[in-house]
Design brief:
This is Cation transporter. The protein folds into two domains: 191 residues, Alpha-lytic protease prodomain-like; 71 residues, Cation efflux protein, cytoplasmic domain (Alpha-Beta Plaits, 2-Layer Sandwich). The chain has eight helices and three strands; from the N terminus they run αααααααββαβ. With 317 residues, it is mostly helical.
Length: 317
């Protein structure tokens, strides 16, 4: 998540009263009718694609067992992780609409981050299983029913194309939706790999192509797992949002805001990928308007660095 370029759904960040007594200034209040529409559309699209993916995943497991195709089982494992990811994205859209309460003052966004971290660890476990099974298959090739494998793989490709079409009709600026589209694109590649393996087996009878291409799917899963675990752990560890440089932010504020002498103790973290937060201490010159300076700092952080929720402590020089 890059603070300078983040363009995610800001329904939690902009124009909300967080009940913490801090001015959320910067003139960002606005109506949420459009956001409500996008939330509903995104939830509907994600729910439909999650059901398509989960339903076909079951069919692919059955087809893989009947045909003896490891490539199909590997792709089913990939679809399992994508089904979990799509379900979490759907849940995040739904749960994120719940207001914060006295016990969860920042709301429920972190639930999706925690689920993503667990999902990423599961991706690694599935990859290990596929790798071990591929090694056994290469050492002792097993018969594969190419025709059954091909039929299931073609059906999977059709399902993934339908899912891709549905998601790309939605709000493509939303990070959840973009991540879901990437997952489906990975499934498309997995289906293509299974189709290629089935055709090679039908034409040549060379069954080692099945575990070889299953390793290709495994690499797709590992790549997804790495990014999911890395990004979710970064947020859970309260690390600064990606692209956030405290020294550069302090220098920018001191230069841009009249009467601001220095900026100290700049801290930033994220509740979710779309909700960066920051706190800082501002030293102002004698006679400076504290309230006006606070509003100017908040406005600058929102406009320049896409951080809408900031707590600013003012001290006179």
């Amino acid at each position: 998540m890059r603070c300078e370029t983040a363009r995610g759904d800001k329904t939690h960040a902009r124009g909300h009263d967080h009940g913490n007594g801090h001015d959320q200034g910067g003139g960002h209040g606005h109506g949420h009718g459009g956001h409500g529409h996008h939330h509903a559309a995104n939830a509907r699209s994600l729910g439909i694609v999650a059901l398509l993916t989960g339903g076909f995943m079951v069919l692919e497991v059955v087809g893989g067992l009947l045909s003896g195709s490891l490539a199909l089982l590997a792709d089913a494992g990939h679809m399992l992780t994508d089904f979990a990811a799509l379900s979490m994205a759907w849940a995040a859209v739904r749960i994120a609409q719940r207001p914060a309460d006295a016990r969860r003052t920042y709301g429920f966004d972190r639930l999706a981050v925690l689920a993503a971290f667990v999902n990423g660890l599961a991706l690694f476990a599935i990859s290990i299983w596929i790798g071990v099974e591929a090694w056994h298959r290469l050492s002792s090739p097993a018969p594969v029913a190419g025709a059954t494998m091909l039929g299931v793989a073609v059906a999977g490709l059709a399902v993934n194309i339908a899912g891709f079409w549905i998601l790309t009709r939605g709000d493509r600026d939303n990070l959840n939706m973009r991540a879901a589209i990437l997952h489906i694109a990975g499934d498309l590649l997995g289906s293509v790999a299974a189709i290629v393996a089935a055709l090679v087996i039908l034409w040549t009878g060379w069954t080692p192509i099945d575990p070889i291409l299953s390793v290709f799917v495994l690499l797709l899963i590992l790549r997804s797992a790495f990014h999911v675990v890395r990004d979710s752990a970064h947020i859970l560890l309260e690390a600064s949002p990606r692209g956030f440089d405290p020294e550069a932010v302090a220098a920018d504020l001191a230069e841009a805001i009249p009467g601001l002498v220095a900026v100290r103790h700049v801290h930033a973290w994220s509740i979710s990928e779309e909700r960066p937060m920051a706190t800082l201490e501002a030293v102002v010159s004698d006679g400076a308007d504290h309230a006006a300076t606070r509003r100017a700092i908040k406005a600058r952080l929102a406009e320049r660095f896409e951080i809408d929720h900031t707590t600013v402590e003012i001290h006179a020089e």
